[in-house]
Amino acid sequence: MKKVLKVLMAVMMVLAMTACGPKEEVSDDAFHVGVVQLVQHDALDAATKGFVDALVGEFGEDKVKIDVQNASGEVANCTTIVNGFVSSDVDLIMANATPALLAAASATSTIPVLGTSVTDYASALEIENWSGVVGTNVSGTSDLAPLDGQAAMIKELFPDAKTVGIIFCSAESNSAYQVEVISEELKKLGLEPKEFSFTDTNDIASVTQSACENSDVLYVPTDNTAASNTEAIANIVIPAGKAVVTGEEGIAKGCGVATLSISYYDLGFATGTQAAKILKGEADVTTLPIEYAKDFTKKFNPVNCEALGVSVPEDYEALSME
Predict the structure, then answer these.
(1) Which residues is 167 bridged to in the sheet?
(2) Which candidate among 63, 201, 237, 315 keeps its CA 20 to 30 Å from the CA of 171?
(3) Contacts (Cβ under 8 Å, ≥6 apart) of 269
(4) DSSP character at residue 222
(5) Do residues 166 and 303 share a domain?
């Protein structure tokens, strides 16, 4: 009886090993890419969509698996998401917005990290003697629009203005960089820049009110916190009769009258093209230069322009308000 039992057990073990065998032999040859996006708003959403479209277009849905996760505006969530990607040993991480980039850069020095919707890599990563290449496992694309052109737009649309109130989040290094640059450009045009910074969403309304009371016209740079709170800003500036020129079109749709903006979808698509080259071994992330947008468009918000009585030249394109 014991011999029979031993034979039966041996047969069962062989069958079990045979059943498991094929599963162990199955290999996943798809690339695994993690996307961490700081917060949901039009610009970042468009960049993520462009990135995904570029990769799927290059490899097909079966050959690239993209895990898109949103941090809901919380920096701590960026860290948690990125650490999950690192634990899963993804092939590449795309970080959408500066806090996401910083979290990814801190979490890994080996997995390629591509940023997008990042204005200035040098200030974000504290790099001196900037050459256009980070030189580590980090590269990507920049959403920096020509700040001199945006200053010129303010002068063009509001020739009688003397003071420009700049509203921005002091916690965002990219915003601080833009404020510094555009302030100098405004001074060149004979305009006086005034800074009005908020630390988080709790003081946006009071800071915006102060800016309205002490400025002829307002400017909001490419700022993630502002972009997520355009309704709160609009609720102050529109009743106050103050026009806002913005750094990108998502903010312009919410609370602005005009912008000289890039296409965030195109920016994300360019980042996806970079990712494809890295995954295929055609590019080395450590030597890959940061790419910048090539095309800029003058756009206006027809709803807010009408409400504030702002007229724009014929070369401005109306924003889609859908």
Answers:
(1) 196
(2) 237
(3) 50, 51, 53, 54
(4) S
(5) yes
Could you count the other beta carbons within 10 Å of the beta carbon of residue 260? 24
Tell me the longest C-alpha to C-alpha distance in the chain: 104
pTM over cut 0.85: no
Task: Count Cα neighbours of 160 within 13 Å in the Cβ-side half-sphere.
Answer: 2
State whether 225 and 202 are in the same domain: yes
Residues 79 and 218 in one domain: no
CA angle (180 as vertex; 163, 74 as ends), nearest 5:
105
Q: Give CB contacts under 8 A, 24+ apart, made by 232-236.
A: 232/201, 232/204, 232/205, 232/208, 233/167, 233/204, 233/208, 234/304, 235/205, 236/205, 236/208, 236/209, 236/212
Whether pLDDT at 86 is above 50? yes
219 - beta bridge partners? 166, 245
d(CA 205, CA 193): 20
- The DSSP line for 72-105 is TT-HHHHHHHHHHHHHTT-SEEEEESHHHHHHHH
Q: How confident is the model at residue 28 (pLDDT cuts 50, 70, 90)?
A: low
Angle at 129 between CA 127 and CA 134, to 5 degrees: 50
As a whole number of angstroms, the distance between CA 85 and CA 107 comes to: 9
CATH number where 39 lies: 3.40.50.2300
Query: Do residues 305 and 311 touch, judged by C-beta distance below 8 A?
Result: yes
Residue 318: strand, helix, or coil:
strand
Q: Is the Cα dihedral 236, 240, 246, 249 positive or negative?
A: positive
Phi, psi of 31 (to 5 degrees): -80, 140
- Report d(CA 77, CA 55) in Å as an integer: 25
Q: So what's the pLDDT on residue 13?
A: 42
Q: Which residue has the higher pLDDT, 179 or 14?
A: 179
Q: Rg for the chain (alpha carbons), in Å?
A: 25
Give the pair of three-digit tokens for residue 139. Answer: 């590269």
